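Two proteins were folded this term; both appear here.
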Amino acid sequence: MKTEQLHSLFLTCHSVCTDTRKIKKDDIFFALKGDNFNGNTYAEQALSKGAKYVVIDEAQYKTSTRAIVVKNVLETLQELARFHRRFLNVPIIALTGSNGKTTTKELINAVLSQKYKTTATRGNLNNHIGVPLTLLAMGCNTDIGIVEMGANHLKEISFLCHIATPDYGYITNFGKAHLEGFGGVEGVIKGKSEMYDYLSTNNKTVFVNGNDTIQLNKTSTSKRFVFGNNAIADVNIDFTEAQPFVICKYNNLYIKSQLIGDYNFNNIAAAIAIGNYFKVEDKAIKTAIENYIPNNNRSQIIKKGTINIILDAYNANPTSMYAALLNFEKQPGHKTAILGDMFELGVDAKKEHQSITDLAISINIDRVIFIGDNFHQSEIHSDKSMKYSNFEDFKTQFDFSEIKNTTLLIKGSRGMALERLIDLLPSH
């Protein structure tokens, strides 16, 4: 079946689904495969649950005229998304970066939705499956699409740009993330810059943080819109303070966010700048930023008993860990940090964990607890720190009643799932 024909069928469906547990009536089900599952085996179940069509790539599972057999389900999903994006022809903003992608995407969405009907990446569905699903979630009433793109190796951003064909793009930063897949920091810069390469080649607009010299150099020949607090900025946004929440100044308005840490200033500034570019009124931008509350373990503020918790356990890499610790040091009162391993660092894992260990015990934090095999192998010479090789050892051996009357930072990679700590902390 040609893509155009499949697209005609797709337009008659409610939405795209890849998980039979979430099937809704009149969905179109794509039978994707993974290391431990074969979606083809669920095709009949999808139909029985109300799917209007199922797309499969193993003919023996065709039990209905509503089953569409293709050569490769994943590639068909991607091509359908690309076709649908061209069919709608709405402006699309793409963003990537080492840190802050999802928060920035949520902020941009909050700002632009003050004036436009937006469709944005849900959660962090930002890979070779998530990007097509985001595009296929857009409808004829979508004014602007906002597509987050993640990558852990070279050529991935280029591939995602080929599917989404964005009109605008923004890179949050270049940091020490996914070093194993990219082969080092230079690989990270090269990989993320594939977005700039695509936009520049196609004469599209890039949004650039004017305070980031790497970004400025990478986009020197691009069509760009610069924000910052310097002479080359198209829009000026000034950092005021982060005690603990970020406050910034824009067009004589003070915007008081509910995001902690000065490292969140650039995320906020990008959203303000993009709102400015798309002519969202200043007061509406202020309202959107001030009403945005972080969730999903990203810089959440939680109060439990005598403990003020900064839960930043969604993910971690050396760059974000470094920024979080330096910001945490500025917090008043007694401070405790619980830090979990950082993943996907490859041959740099030992060096980077030792570097973060040295930083954490050298700055003004009263107590530091390290969890994970990598941190456990780090050398620690301090009586204010403890280390555990895994979460279960920490859970069974540590006396949680000791954590009280303190501000607590919890940060680690997604695989560490340190949000589990919340239920273990005393509530009095």
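Next, the second protein.
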Amino acid sequence: MRTVGVEEELLLVDPSTGEPQALSAAVLARAARAEPSEETFEKELHSQQLEFATHPCADMTDLGAEIVRCRQEAGRVAGEIGAAVVALATSPVPVTPSLSTNKRYEWLAQEFGLPVQEQLVCGCHIHVSVESDDEAVAVLDRIRPWLSVLTALSANSPFWQGKDSLYSSYRSRVWMRWPMAGPNEPFGTAADYHRRVDDMVATGVLLDKGMVYFDARIAERYPTVEIRVSDVALEASTATLLATLTRGLVETAAREWRAGTAPADHSVELLRLAAWRAARSGLEGELLHPRSMRPAPAAEVVHALLEHVGPALDDSGDADRAHKTAGDLLRHGNGARIQRQVLERTGSLGDVVTECVRRTQA
């Protein structure tokens, strides 16, 4: 069974106002004193952010428990210095981002300017184990059309600097300001993948290979593929669903490769439009269907994804829970819909953050 690990980025906020707080250094120091042997938490680009990484898990129930544990531990440590953590992909209330102290981040700010200051966004990165770089590239080439559906499911960033962006995942639009981010043409072989990465680094625009921000890539530090298209999900159950579907996509793609099934030939231009449509719509309205790249109702596209990975979900024992959680999302809404509902009910973006803090810790 393939193992899965999840990295989530959280916002540190004032629990009374919902305003992001530049306290990551203090939270990390306190966490290190409490658990000196653990390295669960890391700093991120901005000091209003905190990142955690789960242990790799083969069982999705265990992974879900890991996500809950890490969120609760982050909340406990932040609470000790008067802050709270919240799984929001952008801040609903206005914020002035504060860059973390780090030579790498300082280089980014000097090289890329204002877009770096605007990158106070929180994503979810999912690592799925693979047997080799050859298998990894075969997977990357075959999952491309389906990644936009993960963005739609996870969408949790409708607000930007105190305003409704009209997007469900505005985080993904901000992220696309990086020139090395987004979808790619098929690689074909592991050698071609590494050659393309080397060519990108050789331009001097990138500091190193860690700045190759493909939607999905071969991880540098782990024997995994890393899928990077999702907002941080409001609910831990949604994060677990994303991990489950991502493992299903990886396993399905690997099986197709072994069976000699060629990747879909969708162009990067179509994949970019599918990503934009997912960011704009989320689970409301239409998405571009991964098979045809034509508009289809969001529910139809989500069910197509479940059908596509169905045999892999059956084999791992995850099918029933995946169908139930996906059905709940379609009925009750993802983070973007919930945030807008809270604002409509209360009229306060601060109340939106407060409610999302509660759901993050639930």
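DSSP finds 15 helices and 13 strands in the chain. The chain has a mean pLDDT of 96. These notes refer to the second protein only.
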